[in-house]
Amino acid sequence: MRVIQTLDFFSSEFKAEAYPVYAELRAKDPVYRITMPDGQTGWVITRYQDAVSALKDNRLVKNPRGLISSEDMVLSTMERDFITRHMLSSDPPDHTRLRSLVHKAFTPRMIEGLRQRIEQIVHGLLDEAEQRKRMDLIDDFAFPLPIIVICEMLGIPVQDRDRFREWSNAVIRATNHPERMQEAVPSIRAFIDYLRDLFDKRRGRPGDDLISALLHVESEGEQLTENELYSTVFLLIVAGHETTVNLIGNGVLALLEHPDQMDKLKNDPGLIRSTIEEMLRFYSPVEVATNRWAAEEVELHGKRIPKGDMVLVVLASANRDENRFDEPDRFDITRGANRHIAFGMGIHYCLGAPLARLEGEIAVNTLLQRMPDLRFGVDPKTLKWRPSYLMRGLIHLPVTW
Ligand code: HEM
């Protein structure tokens, strides 16, 4: 059997051949042990049913409570708090409290209210590119859209977006990787300083945005600490764009690779809803769910996962499980009953799912309407995946029309 070596798991090359490796793991070793670069033991879960159970299992916790992790090894307390004091790294009751403070801003009804603004941003980005007859779909389209939207929701100056991108990319790359985490320290510090400055200004002049609302809650002092405030804003910025960029980028890649499906969508834009679900399943933007740790010994398929070990749930593999999906490696935008788990499952189910879906629908349909002759701008064999084990996303996707 091909083996996932730790190094491979973190590389662009692994991403290019990951799906056949996952298929082999599902068949032969569905609870597969690896050693992470920081020395922790991780158990890689690849089957759909096991992934669903693991995501709902309250013995698998998000806050390692003093168990050693790369962050503990490399970061100061302040830096570690910044990247871990948010809902996605918390368990109930903290998780429940932190999620409830922001969830109202992300309900389908609130998000539907952003439709016109999202359409305007999409057209604006395509206006800029149109005459050039080519663009990098990632840098010029898939990245700016979600970051502009989340900046506007939070009340952060949109012109600073390239700085967040750099800082947040550095943190994503560094998860479970001490050397990369060491390299990410200046980015984390710059990010903290930036937010401190922004919060100071906003305290004096609150607006109608999410940061002002959170600052108000923090000032009351009961429901949100200062560390949690910083970390929550960090999470919303990172989760708000690191993922949707990949939904749009991977989704357009899948269409370019399957011209018959692209034609089908062009002829019937009403298929966009099922298209987005199929894009999420086929090239899941979050490849592996965020770390979970066994709070007690857990047994699965005859393997004993000791207390304190990490569990890595591979959403990308679960979404290609032949025991759950017919012909899982076929990209079919009319696929029915598509119960993928690209947004996770259980209490950490993606808070931003309605926003991501709306951004994806508007972005893809508008792109195809305005650039109906869209095609690859380079030989697709030269495309490279980002070297992050958490995410699946292309570094660049040059297109022309
Ligand atoms: C296609 C785009 C997106 C995908 C595929 C995605 C995927 C996910 C997944 C898989 C999780 C759960 C991770 C786990 O359990 O380990 C999650 C959680 C989360 N996502 Fe998303 N996400 C997307 C877009 C967004 C957007 C636009 C936002 C908005 C700001 C967002 C905010 C969040 C938050 C706050 C959580 C943590 C929820 C909790 O812990 O209760 N996501 N997302």
TrEMBL record:
- Tell me one GO molecular function of this protein: monooxygenase activity
Q: Which Gene3D superfamilies match?
A: Cytochrome P450
| Record-linked SUPFAM superfamilies | Cytochrome P450
Pfam families given in the database record: p450 (PF00067)
Which family is it part of? Belongs to the cytochrome P450 family.
Would the keyword Cell membrane turn up in this protein's UniProt record? no
- Write the protein's name: Cytochrome P450
Whose protein is this, by species? Paludifilum halophilum
Q: Which PROSITE patterns match?
A: CYTOCHROME_P450
Q: Which PANTHER family match?
A: CYTOCHROME P450 YJIB-RELATED (PTHR46696:SF1), P450, PUTATIVE (EUROFUNG)-RELATED (PTHR46696)
**UniProt entry keywords in alphabetical sequence:** Heme, Iron, Metal-binding, Monooxygenase, Oxidoreductase
